[in-house]
């Protein structure tokens, strides 16, 4: 029999249903895999081996017995949750995030915490206080970020399912660079309650999985209205597995002319263009569209996101959570020293940028202006969706880069989000799926975007492409 860790959630579900395998056997197989590999990959910041002693009893749960790795910024009751930051060391939330509660209610088993860029600030998983995670396809390269631990663990079969969070691309970009599936839901589709906030108007939790079907299964469990999150939207959640039809006849796919310009790697461009031709062969209609404000997306995001982050991070002052600098001379000294020692460089950069943009005299010039441009970017999508049902772009302009390559050049790091950021600014859903490899055997990802609350179209298009290609079945040699 194939090792259980190699299987998807839906394959394991079928075996569990027929009593061919038990949840504890799945966990044992995973723990062995993690023990063998994670010293090299470093996807986990905490493994909760005790979960094997608390296998859920609800055999009827939709995800009964399926292991899930949780990004370290999502609260799991009584389990240390640090956002990859020294400032939260020792913080054990007294409650489960809504997504965790829903997963547990359906019998899924959280197995540990995944590495991430500190407070989800980054695109490479290098700003974590635990050190970088490695890309399973090439251990000298980054896995992408900020949900790099979740994506690397899926790619290396160290977990069956994973949760990530996406503020400007943090689910899709690492999924793309690790050759796996990552979905950012519509803003408001999945509750943010218990997600430690980065930029509250952009953040969404979503699945990172081995294939599209597993992403649909996870969405069936985590999506839906939550009274604990005032931005969660009360719209019925469809059964997403019904969209897995392998039929895209008549689907109108928009290709934005602004996304295939200079700076994009030739191999990425050619894989994505091939994908467009394939989708056309499979019955879709391709339409050229324009998203004229695309060029302003990165600058807009790097005002709005740090502004909200600086406000959200004000609460980490050594009083209520995690790390506190001892031996301070007075209260102010304690605040200053806790924050100076607790936050890493990128977090400090964001706090400085954000505080500056929000300060009197600059608010109108930066923050308010950025919000106006954000509306323009959203209107671009509203107009484009008059002529198409979904939009296709590359997920990332390049495949995985080398560890250390961009650490001293924040601007070039920020540009790696150029294709993912607009979806967060506009609040629309987007998925990244594998669409090829570079000559150096690094995965390339394809991004599909759809109208608000139309995750079904994403699943339909993504599943059709995945099933006609099979890139998701390739595994790194480890
Ligand atoms: N890489 C982007 C940033 O650094 C997006 C991060 C994210 O989505 N959390 O802000």
Number of strands: 11
Q: Order of strands in the sheet with the most strands?
A: 1-3-2-4-6-5-10-11-9-7-8
Distance between the termini: 20 Å
Uncertain segments: none
Sketch the major β-sheet: 11 strands, mixed
CATH architecture of the largest domain: Alpha-Beta Complex
Quickly name the level 1 CATH class of the largest domain: Alpha Beta
What is the SS-derived class? alpha/beta
The amount of beta strand, in percent, is 5-15%
Molecular shape: globular
Q: Ligands bound here?
A: glutamine
Number of helices: 14
Number of domains: 2
Name the helicity range.
25-40%
CATH topology of the largest domain: Amidase signature (AS) enzymes
Give the SSE order as H and E letters.
HHEEHEHEHEEHEHEHHHHEHHEEH
Describe this structure in words.
This protein is an alpha/beta fold. It has 2 domains: 4-254 and 385-420 and 430-473, Amidase signature (AS) enzymes (Alpha-Beta Complex); 294-374, no CATH class. The protein is 35% helix and 13% strand. The protein has helices at 9-17, 23-41, 98-105, 148-155, 172-178, 212-222, 266-281, 297-312, 331-342, 345-358, 363-384, 410-415, 421-426, 455-469; strands at 44-47, 67-71, 109-114, 161-166, 181-184, 204-209, 252-256, 285-289, 390-394, 430-437, 443-450. The protein has an 11-stranded mixed beta sheet with strand order 1-3-2-4-6-5-10-11-9-7-8. The longest helix has 22 residues, at 363-384. The protein is globular and about 70 Å long. The model has no long low-confidence stretch (mean pLDDT 96).
């Amino acid at each position: 029999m194939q090792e259980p860790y190699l299987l998807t959630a839906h394959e394991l579900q079928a075996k569990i249903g027929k009593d061919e395998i038990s949840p504890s056997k799945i966990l044992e197989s995973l723990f062995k895999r993690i023990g063998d590999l994670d010293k090299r990959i470093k996807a986990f910041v905490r493994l909760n081996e005790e979960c094997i002693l608390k296998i859920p009893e609800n055999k009827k749960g939709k995800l009964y017995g399926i292991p899930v790795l949780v990004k370290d910024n999502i609260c799991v009751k009584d389990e240390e949750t640090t956002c990859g930051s020294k400032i939260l060391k020792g913080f054990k939330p007294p409650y489960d995030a809504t997504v965790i509660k829903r997963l547990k209610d359906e019998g899924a088993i959280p197995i540990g915490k995944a590495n991430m860029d500190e407070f989800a600030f980054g695109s490479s998983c290098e700003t974590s206080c635990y050190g970088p995670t490695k890309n399973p396809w090439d251990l000298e390269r980054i896995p992408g970020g900020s949900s790099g631990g979740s994506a690397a663990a899926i790619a290396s079969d160290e977990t069956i399912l994973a949760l990530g969070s996406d503020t400007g691309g943090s689910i899709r970009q690492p999924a793309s660079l690790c050759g796996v599936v990552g979905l950012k839901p519509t803003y408001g589709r999945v509750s943010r309650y218990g997600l430690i906030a980065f930029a509250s108007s952009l953040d969404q939790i979503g699945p990172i999985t081995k294939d599209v079907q597993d992403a649909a299964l996870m969405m069936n469990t985590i999506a839906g209205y939550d009274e604990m999150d005032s931005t969660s939207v009360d719209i019925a959640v469809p059964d997403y597995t019904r969209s897995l039809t392998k039929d895209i006849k008549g689907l109108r796919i928009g290709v934005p002319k602004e996304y295939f310009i200079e700076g994009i790697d030739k191999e990425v461009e050619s894989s994505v263009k091939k994908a467009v031709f394939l989708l056309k062969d499979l019955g879709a209609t391709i339409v050229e569209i324009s998203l004229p404000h695309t060029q302003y997306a990165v600058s807009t995001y790097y005002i709005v996101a740090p502004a909200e982050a600086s406000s959200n991070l004000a609460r980490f002052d050594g009083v209520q959570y995690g790390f506190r600098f001892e031996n301070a001379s007075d209260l102010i000294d304690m605040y200053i020293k806790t924050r100076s020692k607790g936050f890493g460089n990128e977090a400090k950069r964001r706090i400085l940028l954000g505080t500056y943009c929000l300060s009197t005299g600059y608010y109108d010039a930066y923050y308010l202006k950025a919000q106006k441009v954000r509306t323009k970017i959203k209107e671009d999508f509203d107009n484009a969706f008059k002529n198409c049902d979904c939009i296709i772009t590359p997920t990332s302009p390049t495949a995985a880069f080398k560890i250390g390559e961009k650490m001293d050049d924040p601007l070039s790091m920020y540009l790696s989000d150029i294709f993912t950021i607009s979806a967060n600014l506009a609040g629309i859903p987007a998925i990244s799926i594998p669409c090829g490899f570079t000559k150096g055997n690094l995965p390339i990802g394809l991004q599909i975007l759809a109208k608000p609350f139309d995750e079904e179209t994403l699943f339909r298009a993504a599943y059709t492409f995945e099933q006609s290609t099979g890139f998701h079945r390739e595994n790194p040699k480890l």
